[in-house]
Amino acid sequence: MGGRSDDGTPGFMTYRDCGRVNVSADYLEINGRSVPLSSDGTFEYDFLLREGKYTSFRVIAKKNGGIAADRTLSVMFDGTAPTLETDLETVEIPDYLEKRLDGEFDGFVSPDRFDGHIKISGKDESFTPVYLWLDGVFVQLSSGCSGFDKISTVHPSKKGDIISVGLADAAGNTTFKNYIMLSGETETLPGDSDFDGSVTVADALLALQQSVGKVELGVLSRALSDIDADLSVSVSDALMILDCAVGKISLPAE
């Protein structure tokens, strides 16, 4: 399968099949339509699939007018992502911070309420096999399973660490759950890059180092340092944090 593209028709998807005929042939026909066949036996064929419905294809390869191969196959377009749930207790991320985060997150997870174990449940409604990964590492499931409940272990070590859970089905549809480790009792302050509960000169220095490429801050630190909400940390952000640290300005949470 070469790829797919949305043609704008709800519930349908256009696919391009890039294949090779494995018999000696000089002519190829798919569903009664002649398909150009290269000298090495490769071909491309665009076709429309309807979501949740099987489409049949009759493929005929000929040599000198005689049939060399005749096959019928059925293909279904599955555009629905698998469902994914965890048992992690979360605290909502403030609006001002959410719009500064690089990526989508499902909430804060308090280290005080997390013992390193996470229950994960997943299912594909089309009953195709699913594949699970946790913090970028593939997690073994039963061969061919389309639904599961599993307890896994993760080891976030400090505030601001990310827990990432992903699930994919055999059609390539994916679902993600991403969490940030931070106590619900810890107030997230704009400019507080080191999460110590106050804005200091040290925070301004971290933002400055990030802006010139000397350090690479984590997702949460970058978001807290991004004062002007342009999804990057600049020298001007560092200067505003410094002004806040010495009492010249206040940084609004907006």
Counting copies of identical and different chains, the oligomeric state is single chain
Rg of Cα set: 26 Å
Structural class: mainly beta
Biggest sheet strand order reads: 9-10-16-15-12-13
Q: How many helices does DSSP assign?
A: 4
- Biggest beta sheet attributes: 6 strands, mixed
Q: What fraction of the residues are assigned to beta strands by DSSP?
A: 35-45%
Rough outline: elongated
Mean pLDDT: 88
- Count of beta strands: 16
Low-confidence stretches: 1-5
Tell me the span between the first and last alpha carbons.
47 Å
Task: Give helix % range.
Answer: 10-25%
Q: What is the string of helix and strand elements?
A: EEEEEEEEEHEEEEEEEHHH
Structure description:
With 254 residues, the chain is mostly beta strands. The protein is 13% helix and 37% strand. The protein has four helices and 16 strands. The protein has helices at 95-98, 201-211, 219-225, 235-245, and strands spanning 3-5, 12-20, 27-30, 33-35, 42-50, 54-63, 66-76, 83-86, 90-91, 108-109, 117-123, 130-134, 137-139, 147-153, 162-169, 174-181. The longest helix is centred in the last third of the chain and has 11 residues, at 201-211. Mean pLDDT is 88; it is low at 1-5.
Any key phrases for this structure?
mainly beta; six-stranded mixed β-sheet; 254 residues; elongated; disordered N terminus
How is the secondary structure organized here?
Blueprint: E1 3-5, E2 12-20, E3 27-30, E4 33-35, E5 42-50, E6 54-63, E7 66-76, E8 83-86, E9 90-91, H1 95-98, E10 108-109, E11 117-123, E12 130-134, E13 137-139, E14 147-153, E15 162-169, E16 174-181, H2 201-211, H3 219-225, H4 235-245
Parallel strand pairs: 10-16
Antiparallel strand pairs: 1-2, 2-5, 3-4, 3-6, 6-7, 8-11, 9-10, 11-14, 12-13, 12-15, 15-16
